[in-house]
Design the sequence.
């Protein structure tokens, strides 16, 4: 029996609606290239204002470093006093909610889109990502579609969260597994 093969000519994501018009999307690409994706980074407050102009909900005291890639700001919600490090990628084909006092370290990725490897057309699949209050996503780590990182959980450097992280848990590896409890001292 011959096995079915991947056929990318069958790929069709016409069902997917990102919520922005063609003009809005084109304008965002220009603004993103100038203010977000370059190494001569604008001040965080300018980036926050621009995100709000494009429909993001952004709290106070947010720090956004240089070279941060955000797919669709209108699907983004950021709480108060959040840090987003250099070269982070928020690939939000679905809503991303980042709680107060969360930290996303450099080169981390929040990936809301993936492909269904079980379908010959390699169909797009999406899932929202939630980072609750006090979460820390370590450098070069990845959070995959549909994952919630619960209050004050930690995803260690270069790890992959493919399932939910429990509150105050420290997780490491690919896939990330629980290591120990996070204890915060005054």
Sequence:
């Amino acid at each position: 029996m011959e096995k079915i093969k991947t056929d990318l000519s069958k790929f069709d994501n016409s069902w997917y609606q990102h919520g922005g018009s063609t003009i809005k999307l084109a304008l965002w690409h220009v603004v993103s290239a100038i203010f977000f994706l370059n190494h001569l980074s604008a001040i965080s407050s300018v980036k926050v204002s621009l995100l709000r102009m494009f429909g993001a909900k952004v709290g106070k005291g947010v720090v956004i470093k240089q070279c941060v890639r955000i797919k669709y700001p209108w699907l983004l919600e950021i709480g108060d006093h959040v840090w987003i490090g250099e070269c982070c990628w928020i690939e939000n084909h679905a809503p991303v909610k980042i709680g107060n006092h969360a930290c996303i370290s450099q080169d981390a990725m929040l990936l809301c889109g993936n492909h269904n490897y079980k379908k010959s057309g390699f169909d797009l699949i999406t899932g929202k990502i939630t980072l609750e209050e006090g979460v820390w996503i370590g450098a070069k780590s990845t959070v995959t579609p549909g994952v919630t990182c619960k209050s004050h959980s930690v995803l260690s450097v270069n790890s992959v969260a493919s399932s939910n992280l429990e509150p105050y848990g420290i997780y490491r590896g690919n896939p990330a597994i629980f290591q120990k409890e996070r204890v915060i001292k005054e």
User: Anything to note?
Assistant: The longest strand covers residues 176-181. The CA atoms of residues 142 and 160 lie 5 Å apart. The chain has two helices and 19 strands. The chain has one domain: 42-176.
